[in-house]
Amino acid sequence: MEKGQMLYEGKAKQVFETNNPNEVIVRYKDDATAFNAQKKGQVDKKGELNNAISTLIFEYLQEKEIPTHFIKQLDDREQLVKKVNIIPLEMVVRNYSAGSMAQRLGVEEGIKSPVTIFDICYKKDELGDPLINDHHAVFLGAATYDELDEMYELTDVINELLIDLFDKMNIILVDFKIELGKTADGEIVLADEISPDTCRLWDKDTMKKLDKDRFRRDLGEVTEAYEEIYNRLKKVLNK
Ligand code: UDP
What we know:
Layout: E1 3-9, E2 13-18, E3 23-28, E4 31-34, E5 39-42, H1 46-63, E6 70-73, E7 78-82, E8 85-96, H2 99-105, E9 112-122, E10 131-132, H3 134-140, H4 145-168, E11 171-182, E12 188-191, E13 199-203, H5 213-216, H6 222-236
Antiparallel strand pairs: 1-2, 2-3, 3-7, 4-5, 6-7, 8-9, 8-11, 9-10, 11-12, 11-13
Helix pairs in contact: 1-6
The protein binds uridine-5'-diphosphate.
């Protein structure tokens, strides 16, 4: 397998073509952005840590029969994945109030929700990834109603599996974002990454934030928090 030209560069990752048209290489960078890239910085070792963390989580989900784009980890910073067309919707799940939802609704962070809350955001940097609803998604041609049903169902199962995994790590899964993609044969699969960049993770005993909010809010010890997640994951997955 050969690494070819860069196809795409995002805020935290680069994507390269390979000599197989159905596979691409994802490379994780140390760059960190927040608030629609208004805040920019670097987090030491973030690329390596997110690559390792996301690999372990995708392997765990695949073992639980979740369809994903993941093929294998190649090295410290790179993964081989199936080439997919990313569906331009961020699937956000919330088990507790936090972040933009707490702000929008004027509630404090950390309130456990009696129901699983799903938000969808339209992936459009120029607009700051606005919160939309199902009808807007269908209007935009991002997905059909049937596809949305399938996407919510898959996201819900992933949430249950992740709650369970993080619970064993003594961590509360507050909320997270996933992206789904369509493979060449039309299957909807989990794509992108699952890491402290894309989840809010709070230590159950101390409520310490072990995620990107440490960067967003200048709380310090960002690398240490990501390392903590990686170490607890390895322990609970016997890796
Ligand atoms: N999230 C993400 N990428 C985004 C926006 C949000 O990974 O572009 C994650 C974020 O880390 C959190 C969850 O989705 O775990 C919900 O984020 P929220 O809508 O509260 O937005 P934020 O407060 O991060 O702006």
